[in-house]
Design goal:
Order of helices and strands: EHEEEEEHEEEEEH
Strand content: 25-35%
Radius of gyration: 17 Å
Shape: globular
Number of strands: 11
Distance between the termini: 6 Å
Helix content: 10-25%
Number of helices: 3
């Protein structure tokens, strides 16, 4: 059984981290079910284990937290669906790369519910969309924008942290960092792509597509 948890309102990052760590400990010792937690945070930046100080452009704009997850700097804020994924990777083959690929596939399947073609790129974690309506890059390649970020951490083979999907955040807030260390591509959202999609719509799509990727249904 996988518990499907949804928090209304904005959840403070410190509170979320504390709750995640406690839940992961209980999952590891067999006293709690695996869980997927859907929430939103107030505006903040998080630094992953590969974050470079130079990529924090506006350090005083929003609170900055050391996330201890994989990846670099990421923004979280209202209008972004954060999905904290607390799953037993040990029971799923102990293959971290394959697990991350499953998370990417889950995001791509979720976006496809809205007729959006999400794609992954070698050397660029997360999920991207091509923007043919924008001017191409100087080398002639099409411009691409990031629509979802992925970063996880493992403790005793239980995952935590997870996914963030841009539904309708204030995209200007990303200007305070170099998102995920990538400066030659931008950031987008479902609403920016012209879709009248809500957080509720995304939650329904996440739950509908989860079994296709992970083979089990959240409770």
């Amino acid at each position: 059984m996988i518990d499907w948890i949804r928090s209304d309102g904005l959840v403070a990052y410190e509170d979320a981290l504390r709750e995640m760590e406690a839940r992961v400990a209980r999952i590891a010792d067999g006293t709690a079910n695996e869980a997927i937690w859907l929430l939103e945070h107030p505006p903040l930046y998080t630094a992953g284990t590969s974050a470079k100080p130079a990529d924090l452009i506006a350090p005083d704009r929003f609170p900055v937290y050391e996330a201890r997850r994989g990846g670099q700097y990421t923004y979280h804020g209202p209008g972004q669906r954060v999905v904290y994924v607390m799953l037993d990777v040990g029971a799923r083959g102990r293959d971290v790369r394959a697990f991350v690929q499953s998370l990417e596939a889950w995001v791509i399947a979720t976006l496809a519910e809205f007729n959006i073609r999400g794609e992954v790129r070698e050397g660029r974690v997360g999920v991207w969309v091509t923007r043919p309506e924008k001017p191409p890059l100087p080398d002639g390649s099409p411009r691409e924008d990031k629509v979802a970020a992925i970063g996880i951490r493992l403790r005793k083979w239980i995952s935590f942290h997870g996914i963030s999907i841009n539904v309708e955040p204030d995209l200007e807030h990303f200007a305070g960092i170099v998102p995920c260390g990538i400066s030659d591509h931008g950031v987008t959202s479902l609403v920016d792509l012209g879709l009248p999609v809500t957080i509720d719509d995304v939650d329904l799509a996440l739950k509908a597509t989860f079994p296709r990727i992970f083979g089990s249904v959240p409770g």
